[in-house]
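A favour, since you know our structure tokens better than I do. Could you add the entry underneath, on a fresh line?
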Amino acid sequence: MPALRNCPAAVMTQAATRIAIIGGGPAGLMAAEVLSQAGIAVDLLDAMPSVGRKFLLAGVGGMNITHAEDYATFVSRYRQRADHLRPLLDAFNPAALREWIHGLGIDTFVGSSGRVFPTDMKAAPLLRAWLKRLRDSGVQIHTRQRWLGWSEDGQLRLAGPLGETLLEPAATLLALGGGSWARLGSDGAWVPLLQTRGVAIAPLQPANCGFEVAGWSQHLVEKFAGAPLKTVSLALPGEPPRRGEFVLTATGIEGSLIYALSADIRETINATGSATVLLDLLPDRTQAQIATALARPRGSQTMAKHLHRQLKLDGAKATLLRELAAAETFQAPQALAAAIKALPVPLVRPRPLDEAISSAGGVPFEALDENLMLRQLPGVFCAGEMLDWEAPTGGYLLTACFATGRAAAEGILRWLERR
């Protein structure tokens, strides 16, 4: 089988069967492990100077690798794609993922929220141990190799430091990530390359992202952009509220509580042009309790002081209340209490895709067979975030990337055996 032509350092050795994996994130690395353990020669190629860059970024605030909640609930987090992902997750569930991490010499623990972390909370030691095991098993990793699609005779085109090279593997796995964080390699540049080959792609959209309002006042932006709102709850109209915290930004709102609702908010905006979320500024008090407190005489006190004295409502919360509630609301305790418990926050658009933690859209499962091989392109498989699924933060994203990487590798093995 031909080697990678003109590739520096003689990186491609001859083998009866070589598999090319394009993309060095969790899905691609996991696929490389499964294939190499089966005795298959693997060349893993990545456009960046090193692999696992987004994986390392995910570990900056604490490497949340998976989640320990009830498994049925866990699977439901994948929303409309839960049925497609279930068999893949069944084969490599959160418990199996933890055992795999332990096999790398990394201990894990379950946090109070059910999230699972490495004991040291870091991604780098895990990645180092994993890459050593991959290299020891014969996986050849080639960086600064950007995939450009296919040549006229069907070979992979790769652009590297010494120019364009060609590769003709027995099979190819694409694990190129979604469209968020382009500087780390997930730039969505693969979309037109597959579209030109007749693969229908669901448009990439921001997921786990912040949202913009039509415009904040100058006072809010100058004084409270970046301020957290803690101990609040948020809901779309008619939906149960979620409790947590988020941050005011110069353009809108962002943070963990927003990410938990981002898919529904985004789809509402897609359907109607805007979305309104209802913010409960004091979830530990009932509306009746708040109204009673507000009805107490305030004498010569300003409303700001009255809110602080009676409800401890001040700072960013009080400013947001003043920003969004009508002026006459502050003259009526019952109306003001209602606003405090369900303050409408109108949102007009998500923040740009490149700022999102992850992306929705990508290669639909309908375009793939049971082995995660593209029906339009025999011998080309897909895995990871470039598939059309989304999930909230909390370990769900990484778990599905690992699981789809394993599933695609096993699909490649079955396909090779049949051939």
